[in-house]
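User: Can you recover a sequence for this backbone? Please restate the input before giving your answer.

Assistant: Of course. Working from this structure:
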């Protein structure tokens, strides 16, 4: 994403952006790097570095963005291919590992919330510490429950489609 933006605005903007960051860092090495970038910026302004070379650098950044986009597309294609293979697998566990993950997350969540309710209702002396500890697991639960929610919705849609598509024709074939 950043590379895409930088390929559009170009090298001079990149130099100013990095230079500003180096100023904020401070330190001897950062100051030396900032000074060197300042010299490059001055050379660009005084046209000691030709516009052709800057154009070539910008073209290089655009090419790097194209390669990054291609990598992203290849990654997504591999993920889709993996999911398709899972759906068509002969082994039931390979087909249903995602719902199994969902059920295990739901069970763990139910046990956690049940334990939390018990701790609060039983008026445990360290209930506040337990609740604070559970707050720290929010990101873990949000990811797990997000995966569960997506899987449940998609499975419901697929099951509804299968029932609507094949149900009537199967009944008619059995009657015939």
């Amino acid at each position: 994403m950043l590379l895409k933006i930088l390929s559009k605005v170009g090298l001079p903007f990149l130099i100013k952006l990095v230079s500003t960051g180096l100023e904020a860092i401070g330190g001897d090495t950062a100051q030396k790097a900032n000074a060197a970038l300042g010299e490059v910026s001055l050379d660009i302004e005084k046209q000691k570095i030709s516009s052709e070379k800057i154009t070539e650098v910008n073209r290089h950044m655009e090419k790097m963005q194209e390669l990054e986009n291609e990598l992203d597309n290849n990654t997504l294609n591999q993920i889709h291919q993996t999911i398709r293979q899972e759906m068509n697998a002969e082994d039931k566990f390979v087909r249903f590992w995602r719902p199994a993950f969902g059920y295990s997350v739901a069970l763990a969540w139910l046990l956690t919330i049940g334990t939390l309710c018990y701790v609060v209702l039983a008026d445990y002396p360290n209930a506040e510490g337990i609740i604070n500890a559970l707050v720290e697991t929010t990101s873990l639960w949000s990811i797990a429950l997000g995966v569960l929610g997506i899987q449940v919705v998609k499975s419901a849609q697929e099951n509804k489609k299968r029932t609507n598509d094949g149900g009537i024709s199967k009944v008619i074939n059995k009657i015939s």
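That completes the design. Residues 2-77 form one domain.
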